[in-house]
Amino acid sequence: MDIAVILILFLLGISVGSFLNVVADRVPARESIVRPPSHCFNCGHELEPRDLVPVFSYLILRGKCRYCGRPFSVRSMLVELAAGLLFALAFFTFGVTWQLAPALIFISFYIILFITDLEQGILPHVIVYPGIALALIIALLSPLTGTLPGTISSLEGLAVSYGFFFLLWALPRLFKKSVLDYGDVGMAGLIGASVGFPQVLVALYIAILAGALTAAILILWKLKKFNEPLQFGVFLAAGGLVALFWGSEIIDAYSMLLR
Ligand SMILES: [Zn+2]
């Protein structure tokens, strides 16, 4: 039974992942997410349903266009696989409960923002702010569904996370250019609203630590200049995922330590 549910979640995940690829490619370019239909970027040939089966088509075609033989980017397949694995993993944390649905929704939002920030340095407002609205609506419905975070926790998460990142973004600008983009502030708000308080602290801690370490390594290897902006959304997405899956356990374990 569990195996069947996990398999269904994996298949759902790779299918959703294929849609997330389209959203991440087209929304920052302000293109429609339904038109034109998927096509090869080299020869322009429209891709048929058999070419669009998530993960499997890529493997069967060995990552090449059926019509012109040009290699497809491996990113689409990796995103489908990651979404499939994260959806399946969600079963172990949430089981088949009301909590599963919001988890899958927020995983999807985090994945889209991870891709757009990593590849283009953009966290589109048209993704971030509807995400925050959705997180608040889900939290408002929590007395009916029993999902976490509740309304207050979600609002606190939003206020703390958005507020903290607003200061991180705004204060350096008084003196010079900020390494953060305003998009990071919105995304921090989305993480806060979706995982709630205090779980959001786990997300912020991981994001800032991982972001600072990565920046230090890139600067030491001279791959990046000190003042260059960092794609911080990538680290927020990673921190958000950890907080979504294990935030409560980590907070509990930490408060036990402090006793
Ligand atoms: Zn082609």
Report what the structure shows:
This protein has helices at residues 2-26, 56-60, 74-94, 100-120, 125-140, 142-145, 151-173, 182-195, 199-220, 232-258. The chain is mostly helical. α5 packs antiparallel against α7 (151-173) and α7 packs antiparallel against α8 (182-195). The protein is globular. The N and C termini lie far apart (40 Å). The mean pLDDT is 93.
Sum this structure up briefly.
With 259 residues, this protein is mainly alpha-helical. Helix content is 69%, strand content 0%. It is globular.
* Residues in helices, as a percent range: 55-70%
Q: What's the number of structural domains?
A: 2
Structural class: mainly alpha
Radius of gyration: 19 Å
Averaged pLDDT: 93
Give the DSSP E fraction (strand runs of 2 or more residues). Answer: under 5%
**Ligand inventory:** zinc ion
Shape label: globular
Euclidean distance between termini CA atoms: 40 Å
Catalogue the unreliable spans.
none
Helix and strand run:
HHHHHHHHHH
